[in-house]
Amino acid sequence: MIIEDKDIFTLLGAQSDPAAAVRDGVVVYSNHSAESLIMPKMTGRPAAALLPPELLGLISGPCRMDARLFDEDMSVFVMDLDGLRIFIFDPPLTGLDAAGAVAGAIGRGIREQLAVSGANLSLLVRRAIESSDVAAINNASKLTRSLTRLERQTDNSDRYFQDYKMTPSRKKIDLLQLIGDLVAEVNTLPLEPKISFVSRVASMPFLADADLMRVAVLNLLSNSFKAVRSGGSITVEFGSASSRVITVSDTGSGIEGLAGVFTAFERPAGLSAPGAGTGFGLSVVRKIMSLHGGWVMLEARPGGGTCVSLRFPSPDPALDSMPLSMPGPSEPRLFLLELSDVLPSEAFRAALLES
Description:
The protein is an alpha+beta fold. It folds into three domains: 5-90, PAS domain (Beta-Lactamase, 2-Layer Sandwich), CATH 3.30.450; 96-161; 165-354, Heat Shock Protein 90 (2-Layer Sandwich). 40% of the residues lie in helices and 20% in strands. The protein has helices spanning 5-13, 32-37, 53-56, 96-131, 134-161, 175-187, 210-227, 281-291, 332-338, 345-354; strands at 19-23, 26-30, 63-69, 72-81, 84-90, 171-174, 195-199, 205-208, 234-238, 245-250, 295-300, 306-311. α7 packs antiparallel against α8 and α9 (332-338) packs antiparallel against α10 (345-354). Mean pLDDT is 76; it is low at 94-103 and 270-275.
């Protein structure tokens, strides 16, 4: 059955979000919201009116990307239907200040309860160990894991609404070395599959916060570990020096629909099973990349799986004269927080004791 362009245009016209369509590199339709957001009378203009050419060239299939567009941070969904490329834009969220105040109040209340629960749990663990009660020790371990996850989500909530306090500690680091070392550390953990690391560059210097970069990649790896089943694969890859792109791809279950993937607290269809997470990780990745002037794109892989691309802007010319900082290894607690929902119980307990 052939889908008529006019039928697609009718659907896009009913969209409240800005939407447009491109055929053969030219805009052939734009709804009222798109013309209000981007520019009037878009029909007949080149596709570059919607996305910069360097972004357009990276789209090979259905994807969701977050980028700085039209002087706003926004998300855009892109897909192809019989040669017609469709763009649907999500304007920037509003009301985050009010939401942040509410989240902060909730977070303070949660942390007070966490402190009380943690003290009680410490007493429970000590008594269980003294009595050599295996069942009590196992139960205490489960409670510890649950409290740690809650602590992680509370911290992430604070960081999200405060833009990580808008003060990343940026130093000149080699992203290739940082992420390569991180992958090597994760590969020492009892997690399957082991991560493949591929690079087409000898180095990738950038002015960045090393801890935030680790958090971003660990969030993506955590998602991949949840999605990949027996026999699957996870790959971290550095592209060419000119592209400045890091991809984290897997052959997992994929995502059924890309709407809402960068929205905090939302889980797309296909990621609602127990243990699939809380829908916060990609919004954290989005925020970290935004703080570093970059953007993130998520694509459904042909044949199943997901590919997430982190694209970094061209470095400041002054970066060449800056000394290279050599970040130390990740603290065990970082793995504890970011991989607590995929680590086996034994490894979790070991990391907890080590931290």
